[in-house]
Structure formats: structure tokens, C-alpha cells
Specification:
alpha+beta; 9-stranded antiparallel β-sheet
Length: 173
């Protein structure tokens, strides 16, 4: 069994506003690794990141609400079926998305909207790796690496420069 997570990095809103819009309350308790159902942390970029381990399916209504009067980038990674998605929303409107679904084919990659320029070198590198190693799914990493390039974090890595317990545990209201 692998990761199945949703990350949402919101810029232009305070953590309190993100908590309110997402329907969570801070507990004042922190953890080293984001293992609780919902945790939050401020990234070096200043964006506030929700790390979601439950109710993780990407939801356009949630993205629209969280990006109202702000912007966000989101990343969904499901290692159990090798499905990944990255996308951006600004003021309640989706700007672009990039997705991979191994069930549609190992080289499946789909995009909508004007994707960021960072996608092309990530795409080229992943497809080159895929050509060299057909036994792995390197295309799965494309949306994840794009989110990391724009948001500053991968779902399976620590926040660079963060303290020992950067993830505040949040509870759903």
C-alpha cells in the first residue's frame, strides 16, 4: 500500500481563513510527519499547505471555495492505482491541470488550460526515464514534480528548513 494524499497550497489567505474555508480547526498539536487525517503548515514560499489523508478525492467545489480571493495549487497522488493530478485555481476558477492515470496507459498524460512553462522539462525528463525503464511508472511523477516546482514540496518529502514538527493537526468541524 502506498500514499493516497491531497495537498492544497493556498496563497493570498491567512491560515485562519484557509481553516475556515476548508472547515477545520487547529488543535495546537503538531507532528513530524503528516499522518493525521488533516494537517497544515506554512511553506517557505509563504503559501499555507493543507495535507489531507482522508476525504482526499480532488473536489472542484473545495478548490473554488479555497481559491476565492486567492490562488491555489493542488496535488493529488494515489500510489495504489498510480494516478496523479496537479492543478491551479485563481479566484474560484480553474486555470490549468495536468493528470496521469496508469489505468488509461503507462504513458497517459492529459492537460487542460495554459500549463506552466515548468511542465515541459519535467515531461521530457519523465518520458526519457520511461523509455529507459519501462518497468516503472515515471509519468506518474510529472504532476507531482510540477506541484513541487511551483509549490516547493513533494508529498513524500519534508518541508525544507522546517522545524522538527511543522505539521499542525487540524480537526474537521
Amino acid at each position: 500500500m502506498g500514499f493516497r494524499v491531497l495537498l492544497i497550497a493556498v496563497t493570498g489567505k491567512s491560515p485562519d481563513a484557509v481553516h475556515n474555508d476548508y472547515g477545520v480547526t487547529p488543535t495546537g498539536r503538531y507532528e513530524e510527519i503528516p499522518e493525521s487525517p488533516v494537517t497544515g503548515a506554512t511553506l517557505p514560499s509563504g503559501a499555507y499547505l493543507l495535507y489531507i489523508n482522508d476525504q482526499i478525492e480532488p473536489d472542484d467545489h473545495v478548490f473554488a471555495r479555497l481559491s476565492k480571493d486567492a490562488s491555489l495549487i493542488a496535488c493529488y497522488a494515489n500510489e495504489t492505482v498510480m494516478n496523479s493530478v496537479a492543478g491551479s485555481w485563481v479566484d474560484g476558477v480553474e486555470q490549468w491541470s495536468v493528470s496521469h492515470d496508469a489505468q488509461q496507459g503507462i504513458e497517459h498524460l492529459e492537460s487542460t488550460g495554459p500549463v506552466p512553462h515548468q511542465l515541459e522539462p519535467i515531461r521530457k525528463s519523465a518520458f526519457a526515464k520511461q523509455d529507459d525503464d519501462a518497468g516503472a511508472d515515471h509519468i506518474f511523477d510529472i504532476p507531482i514534480e510540477l506541484f513541487a516546482a511551483l509549490g516547493g514540496i513533494r508529498y513524500d518529502q519534508d518541508i525544507e528548513g522546517a522545524g522538527p514538527e511543522p505539521w499542525e493537526i487540524l480537526t474537521r468541524r
